[in-house]
Target: Serpin (Serine protease inhibitor)
Amino acid sequence: MSAVQAEPSGQEFGLELLRRVSAEHKGNIALSPYSAAAAISLATPGARGQTLEELQKTIPGKAALDEAFRQAELNLEMGNRLYLDRSIEFSPDYLRLVSDDKTQSEQVDFKKNKSDAADRINAFAKKATHGLIPQVISESDIPDDTRMMLVNAIYLKHRWLQIFDKKDTRVLPFIKPDGSWAATPLMIQNQYGFLATQAGDCIVIAKYYEHSRSAFVAILPPEGTEVHEFLNKLTAAEFSELMQSLNDAGKPRHPRAQHAAIRQDLRMPRFDHDANYSLVPALRAMGIPHSFLPTGSNFTGMTIEPPLDGPLYINGIKQFCRIKNDEEGTEAAAVTGTGLGCGACPPSPYLELPPVMEYRYIAAYLNRPFIWMIGRPDRNDTPFFMGVYDFPSSEDTVSKGSESPLADAIIRGDAVRVETLLKQGADARELFHETPVLSLAVDRGNIAAAQALLDHGADPAQGNLVEYATLHGNRSLEALLIERGATIEEQHLRSAIERQDAELVRLILHKKPDLRLSHSLYNAIGYGNIDFVRAMLELGDTPTIYDLGLAVKLRDPGMLELLLKYAAQNTIQSNILLEHLVRTGRAHDVRLFLDRGINANAEPFPGRTLLDCAGSEDVRQLLKQHGAKPGTLQDNPPSI
Model:
């Protein structure tokens, strides 16, 4: 009998989950470690063997989660739902262990009526989150082998201990590590209701909630540090020290604190962030790989008899989260769904294709990027919500007037007066509240004023001018700035690709041919624009397994054939990709890979060959023609 595994601390689990998600998704992050742990903990009583050991050592247990909820001192609501397929007889002992006043179960028919199951899950999510999250799943999101869905929903609405006065909210710069900044409304408070302290090179701030020891906690990394890089290096011990520095504010006991100080002026952005993530890659990497593979999972405690379709395994974990911070307080919600399916060879357990994204420029901006948490800094509980504030929404980015005639003319959109003032000697490099006036013209979308400023010596490389032009949808202004030497970043190419503007893409690549963009090929493949893909491949971009996997999924043989010409051999031979190929691809797609020399007897899983995972008879016959043989299933695949 195996020894009982020590649970991780709640803060450690939350930080590690945030770090893993941040590594996959840059920019703003919003998630609920508590909801994730609560949803997965519903599966723990049914786990056995190594699966149970991994869950116990990785996920905070139900007792710890319940205690954190009781100690929160917040207006919190939480509920769980177990959606059970009628085709399986679930164990009464398991259902008894997970049942309490916050947990109910419903029978659904995942096999024959996915639409009804999705409607029930969405109705629960909408009601439990008071409409903040109205929909979390559609019929097409439910894998065919789903036999169980464990759903947790959490909702918070609480006033600040000291609310912000709306009259004090002002437009101020929010500084990015690269020195650029955006004007954004910052809520200001210089009274009570918050704590701040210097802890080493970091500043830690806690904005407390009414009648509670819980707070919105923000960690400001050292100035000039990119927030995601800082988060990636932040250890659990260091995070605990930062929380302790709040508890010791006014008492210089923290070993890293230079002194104890109470910050007298709090400036904090309003924001409304929503996000959704697949948590499978993060949780697998954190230590529960066997739960996601039927050949390695063991959830035999959930059912009376083993399901006829194969053993239960977790076939997906998806979380939706939203948080709204304003002068009054915080409203936040999260819904986490854990699906369990049956089968011998899981549908793409490794290769999870990210969505083809639509790029939006959001001016990033306390007064620079920070990490945030909602919970009690004086306890080591699982945070209810965590995230990264990397940038404010474009709706909150504004400009403010000035006494400068040139700036006033630009703000008013009077290009004729701008030209007149410049001819009379006005300085085209003039600053407006530390912002180059060219930025104001770009922000106004005034191409005539921008052209006049550039003609009179304005520096197009100052600030992030192309982003502002993109924000206003002014394609002509974008092209002008790029042609005149504006700083070009990855997001400019991404935006041009998403708008399928071939001329602008070529201009960017001509001006900066060494530019490399994560998911640049991926988005172009998603749009089916083979001209974009060909241009980037010719400039040296290399297809990844995700690029090839998307072409397979979209059944675009022309795109796939093009990508294979440029793909590295070790990419083509990746077991992760090959499993996805034979399960979801057509025989024509598989033949293209075979022509590139893949091994028809490759084993995506120990003891299981491509033939075992083939998703159609055509693919199966093609593999046999190339000498493919069935494998011998092993019970315990290696940890991933």
Remarks:
- The chain has 26 helices and 17 strands.
- The domain at 10-158+270-354 is CATH 3.30.497.10 (Antithrombin; Chain I, domain 2).
